[in-house]
């Protein structure tokens, strides 16, 4: 036969708890203990409330631009839950739920968006990287972090998050190519939320799935319902196993939806149909999980009311902690440019308010020190 | 002591540091079995194995981006970019991430990374193999930029770069990779980053240069027969203004020589700093002898572009006669 297939494949989609509340017992039974489901539901509700408060803070001028995470809580949370403490979480900026689950104090994210680098001062040992603003460049760091684990003969991995838009970036492809060809323990977790600001996924990827992008690199690829916490936990666990035992990367496309605007500086009504939004509101991961808990008698309205109260108190406390940080000294931005401050920066720092830069610096130095 | 070329001195430094510290690893295009296109990593793949001397996929941003991850995890990667003309694709990772990680995390995450890059013209190479982009990375805060002009300095500076807690771009002037040999101590020693070297002392004027241009300056000084002080900056960012100022206050005259284009080249910054710090000592305007504000020509005309002893000699005459 002169023409014959040399490679055939398919992309599977994993769904365990669907939007109609149907639960796949075969895949889902025993996957997550009930108490952990409850804890994660509580966590998601709390994160949702943080979004609401952050939005209000921005609108009232008490915080800068903020990107709501609303609708995407199940993705990073499921991943963070499925991974170990030593595994790196290399995030974009819509992974609050996963970062907080790992242990990042909530005020850190608030501080970040309040224009304060202290929000990125990740506590030692947390193994997360700070929010990444440039699109699609952080995946390479994850590949390097996973590589370091392999170099040391450890079985840790790195899981990196990014949106559908980021899969158009060159670094995304380089990160996948390095990870696959050098056999590195990395999980590429794409949050396909349908929109990159105003540009729909179709402009980023004309193939039927984003998941299949990983096929070209010879890695395992899977699509998952990103609003289904159970399915996310399952696919990340499978990917982690593959990374730990075979040092092979996995590409996960989690299909989810950005229920909010891109950021507080955006107005999605300019480019997005209301109908589409309304349809996705019905697939909200919180509603779905609440339904699962209700159906099993694990939740009720009074618990919900208590949770709401608790979430409000938690977020209020986080906002208070963010607002109560000490004022930064005006020279703060010089402090961490290098481990040891070089002479030119020392001089600029000393004279920043006593001399126009460079003008009579020797005299200015003297007046500053006397 | 061993009589070594620049290439051999760098190779020796890499071997010694890899033996001393198992966190040190080498990565890049053709650095493994092939030993690098200039043979700087010759023999290292065999000696240290494929896990520590890694042939990566052909992607400069990928090399630097993954090296950032390795460095953030506590390793000491040394990434080679094959030629300075291919730094472009890595610019984003270098300046957006490597340079900023310490300050944006207030030191919680740092990038102790060395980026080795052959640099400059004069070897009859194809296009994009002869540029001098050091000022670009000097203008970008958060990086250190180093360029040795001798085998002895190359070894000591490279050890300092590898041990430095911050990202260092280590430019290797390819024109002098094998141009001459020098006695290089086999024992471990470091040359501090940020300290210039007084190549020769003099009283008539101060000449400041770095990289392969230092050799052109020496030639010009010898031909002029004048008593000229020559300073090799060695580190371009942060550069040793103290040594330059001290010298210019004594001589009252200064010439800066570099291969890179004139406008916004490092010569501009040095001239400004001399004006700020030595104004009342100056007997003549600070002169620059540099490449031109053009694209580096193909190699038929590259020697017309690069500063040579004749052009530097002219500057000497002008500055002394002013």
Largest interface: chains, residues each: A-B, 48 and 48 residues
Please name the fourth-level CATH homologous superfamily of the largest domain in chain A: Thiamin diphosphate (ThDP)-binding fold, Pyr/PP domains
What is the count of structural domains of chain B?
2
Name the poorly predicted regions of chain B: none
Instruction: Kindly state the number of beta strands of chain B.
Output: 14
Report on this structure:
The complex is a heterodimer of chains A (370) and B (322). The longest helix of chain A has 26 residues. Chain A is an alpha/beta fold and 370 residues long. In chain A, strands 1-7-8-4-3-2 form a six-stranded parallel β-sheet, sandwiched between helices. A two-stranded antiparallel sheet of chain A has the order 5-6. Chain A folds into two domains: 311 residues, Thiamin diphosphate (ThDP)-binding fold, Pyr/PP domains (Rossmann fold); 38 residues, no CATH class. In chain A, helix 6 packs parallel to helix 7. Chain A has 15 helices and eight strands. The C terminus of chain A is likely disordered. Chain B is an alpha/beta fold. Chain B folds into two domains: 183 residues, Rossmann fold; 121 residues, 3-Layer(aba) Sandwich (Rossmann fold), CATH 3.40.50. In chain B, the strands form three sheets. A seven-stranded mixed β-sheet of chain B has the order 3-2-4-5-7-6-12, sandwiched between helices. In chain B, helix 8 links the parallel strand 10 and strand 11. In chain B, helix 8 crosses helix 12 and helix 9 packs across helix 10. The longest helix of chain B is centred in the N-terminal third of the chain and has 15 residues. The model of chain B has no long low-confidence stretch (mean pLDDT 97). Classes of the chains: A alpha/beta (370), B alpha/beta (322). At the A-B interface, helix 6, helix 7 and helix 14 of A face helix 3, helix 4, helix 5 and helix 10 of B.
């Amino acid at each position: 036969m002169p023409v014959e297939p040399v490679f055939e494949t398919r992309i599977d989609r994993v769904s365990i708890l669907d939007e109609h509340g149907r639960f796949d017992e075969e895949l889902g039974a025993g996957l997550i203990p009930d108490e952990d489901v409850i804890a994660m539901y509580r966590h998601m509700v709390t994160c949702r409330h943080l979004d609401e408060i952050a939005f209000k803070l921005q609108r009232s001028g008490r915080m800068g631009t903020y990107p709501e995470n609303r609708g995407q809580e199940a993705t990073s949370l499921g991943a963070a839950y499925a991974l170990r403490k030593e595994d790196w979480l290399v995030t974009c900026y819509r992974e609050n739920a996963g970062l907080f689950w790992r242990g990042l104090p909530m005020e850190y994210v608030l501080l970040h968006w309040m224009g304060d680098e202290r929000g990125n001062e990740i506590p030692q040992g947390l193994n997360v990287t700070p929010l990444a603003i440039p699109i699609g460049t952080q995946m390479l760091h994850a590949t390097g972090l996973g590589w370091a684990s392999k170099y040391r003969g450890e079985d840790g991995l790195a899981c990196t998050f990014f949106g559908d838009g980021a899969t158009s970036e060159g670094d995304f492809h380089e990160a996948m190519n390095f990870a696959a060809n050098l056999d590195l323990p990395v999980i590429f977790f794409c949050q396909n939320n349908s929109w990159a600001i105003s540009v729909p996924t179709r402009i980023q990827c004309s193939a039927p799935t984003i998941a299949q992008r990983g096929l070209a690199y010879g890695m395992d690829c899977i699509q998952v319902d990103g609003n289904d916490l159970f399915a996310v936990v399952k696919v990340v666990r499978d990917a982690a196993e593959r990374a730990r035992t075979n040092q092979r990367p996995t590409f996960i496309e989690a299909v989810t939806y950005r229920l909010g605007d891109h950021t507080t500086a955006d107005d999605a009504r300019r480019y997005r149909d209301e109908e589409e939004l309304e349809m996705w509101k019905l697939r909200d991961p919180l509603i779905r999980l609440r339904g699962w808990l209700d159906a099993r008698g694990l939740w009720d309205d009074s618990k919900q009311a208590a949770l709401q109260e608790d979430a409000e108190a938690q977020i209020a406390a986080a906002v208070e902690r963010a607002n109560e940080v000490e004022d930064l000294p005006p020279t703060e931005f010089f402090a961490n440019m290098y481990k040891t401050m070089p002479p030119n920066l020392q001089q600029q720092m000393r004279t920043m308010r006593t001399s126009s830069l460079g003008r009579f610096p020797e005299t200015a130095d003297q007046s500053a020190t006397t | 002591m061993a009589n070594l070329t620049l290439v051999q001195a760098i190779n020796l430094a890499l071997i010694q540091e890899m033996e001393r510290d198992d966190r040190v690893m080498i990565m890049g295009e053709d650095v493994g079995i092939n030993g690098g296109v200039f043979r700087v990593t010759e023999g290292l793949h065999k000696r240290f194995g494929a896990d520590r001397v890694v042939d990566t996929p052909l992607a400069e941003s990928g090399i630097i981006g993954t090296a950032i991850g390795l460095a953030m995890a506590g390793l000491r990667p040394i990434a080679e970019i094959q030629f300075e003309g291919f730094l472009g694709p890595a610019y984003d990772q270098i300046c957006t991430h490597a340079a900023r990680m310490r300050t944006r995390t207030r030191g919680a995450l740092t990038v102790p990374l060395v980026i080795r890059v052959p640099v400059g013209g004069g070897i009859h190479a194809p296009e994009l193999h002869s540029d001098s982009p050091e000022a670009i990375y000097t203008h970008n805060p958060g990086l250190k930029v180093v360029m040795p002009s001798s085998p002895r300095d190359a070894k000591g500076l490279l050890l300092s770069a590898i041990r430095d807690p911050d990202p260092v771009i280590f430019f290797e002037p390819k024109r002098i990779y094998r141009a001459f040999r020098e006695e290089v101590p086999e024992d471990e020693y470091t040359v501090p980053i940020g300290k210039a070297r007084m190549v020769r002392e003099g009283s008539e004027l101060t000449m400041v240069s770095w990289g392969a241009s230092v050799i052109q300056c020496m030639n010009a000084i010898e031909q002029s027969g004048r008593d000229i002080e020559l300073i090799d900056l060695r580190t371009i960012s942060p550069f040793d203004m103290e040594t330059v100022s001290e010298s210019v206050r004594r001589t009252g005259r200064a010439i800066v020589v570099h291969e890179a284009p004139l406008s916004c080249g490092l010569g501009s910054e040095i001239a400004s700093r001399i004006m700020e710090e030595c104004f009342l000592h100056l007997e003549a305007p600070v002169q620059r002898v540099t490449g031109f504000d053009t694209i580096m020509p193909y190699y038929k005309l590259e020697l017309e572009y690069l500063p040579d002893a004749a052009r530097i000699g002219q500057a000497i005459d002008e500055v002394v006669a002013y």
